[in-house]
Amino acid sequence: MSALLTVADVHIAYGKVEAVRGVSLDVGENEIVTIIGANGAGKTTLLNAIMGVLPLRGRTTFAGVDMAPLDIEDRVATGLSLVPEHRELFGTMNVEDNLELGAFRIAKATAARSLERVYTLFPRLKERRKQLAGTLSGGEQQMLAMGRALMGAPKLLMLDEPSLGLAPIIVADIFRIVDELRAAGVSVLLVEQNAQAALQIADRAYVMELGEFVLSGSAKEIAANKGVAASYLGFQLEGESAI
């Protein structure tokens, strides 16, 4: 499988404090890769740096293109998109207007097709298309944030804590849609504290602690690791003790 996104020996600092140290990862085409870890591990920082929000040291390529000279808008144009942890919607604008903001770089006819695609994925958004974004439930706002990111037809969607604060039934719906995106040819880089849900749909996983990757492998391998089970899944594997 060819790598769509490659991150090599990346370091990210806030002033003199290094928040991410020497991490490397790759995401292939039609693949879901998850990064799990505790709050403050550096997961969000890494996504923001890949998107160009924060400076980094190291090498990042996307679809064979060196991203170092690209600003955020150029990275979006190459097919990279980020749904941030706090969604960053425009609460006083309606659902459809928020969605259309995600299509600012594409032709009107293409945007219309993207809008219908988003409404097919998220029929609830179509029902509420004239409702103000600020009046939506948390789950609906997450759907809207994802829909807006999909309006530009990205090749890779980065999701930062999409399950945060949502009821289990809504989380299941969100993760079902993530799985559908992979089937439709969209790769996903998923940052998630809900490790159990993330590992159920991911192809591969990285475990991040204190700014470094301490473990990586297939999602099944990571889920079967006794230390991961005790630290992130909330249980110990039968016959084993936690690290």
Helix count, per DSSP? 10
Strand % is 25-35%
Largest sheet: 6 strands, mixed
User: Would you list the SSEs in sequence order as H and E?
Assistant: EEEHEEHEHHHHEHEHEEHH
Strand ordering within the main sheet = 6-7-8-3-9-10
CATH superfamily of the domain at 1-79 and 156-166 and 186-243: P-loop containing nucleotide triphosphate hydrolases
List the uncertain runs.
236-243
Report the C-alpha radius of gyration, rounded: 18 Å
As a percent range, the share of helical residues equals 25-40%
Write the CATH architecture name of the domain at 1-79 and 156-166 and 186-243.
3-Layer(aba) Sandwich
Average pLDDT rating: 92
The CATH topology name of the domain at 1-79 and 156-166 and 186-243 reads Rossmann fold
By CATH reckoning, the class of the domain at 1-79 and 156-166 and 186-243 would read Alpha Beta
Number of strands: 10
Distance between the termini: 33 Å
Which structural class fits the helix and strand makeup? alpha/beta
Gross morphology is globular
Domain ABC transporter: 5-235
GO biological process, one term: L-amino acid transport
Family: Belongs to the ABC transporter superfamily.
Pfam families: ABC_tran
